[in-house]
Design brief:
Layout: H1 2-16, H2 19-35, H3 43-58, H4 62-80, H5 83-99, H6 103-119, H7 123-140, H8 143-169, H9 173-182, H10 187-197, H11 220-234
Family: Belongs to the SCC4/mau-2 family.
InterPro entries: MAU2, TPR-like_helical_dom_sf
Keywords: Cell cycle, Cell division, Chromosome partition, Mitosis, Nucleus
Amino acid sequence: MQSMCQVYAAVSYICKGDAESSSEALELIGPAYRTMDSFVGVREKTCIIFVYGLLLMRQHNPQDARVRLASGLRIAHQQLGNIQLVSQYLTILGTLALQLHDTGQAREILKSSLTLAKTLYDIPTQIWILSVFTELYRELEEKENEMENSEYGSKKEIDLQRRLAEARSRAYHQELVEKVRIEAEPLHNLFQKHNDMSGLPVNDDLDIPESVGLSTPQPSSVRRLVDSSSVRRSTRRRVS
């Protein structure tokens, strides 16, 4: 719990964006990253890798960032089977590809991510992906696509705020918030679950569109990210 609180605090520092805050974030996330293999499960591990990769991006270390993020994506798919997390990992990898000016790969990864986010009705992630698409179209100087995509993103933001307002207006909203706020599973139950699941096979049969390329142990988009990174180290459609 203490480690995860440090991770969330690191996210806050990363969002501030200045050099001093990045140093503070590294002091928080570094120890958690080094000890994450000793944690009970992989949920915490995928979260730590995601935040550490984000920090490396902010520190202008794209090669290390995409290697870390690619490893986190494989864990999210193969061990967790968490499609929402897979979509978010793909989004950050697409953002990274755009920063490296690999617009073709960025478009491919982002389209796969958007497909998953739409399947899950994950509107916040959709808005995030659409904002990256807007940057992509701006870099490609595709003005018409940029405008249409930006308008579509604005509609999604309005839709999200409407849904949030509806949820808050319900009579049971505060009651449910207070209920989940005080619920916490005893630690010994988590250890027992970990021991029970340790011998279970990995579930690779996930309902993911073929375009994502995650049906194999190592996604094609991720494989290219890792392979291209290894090469550099050794030598140096429109949104529907």
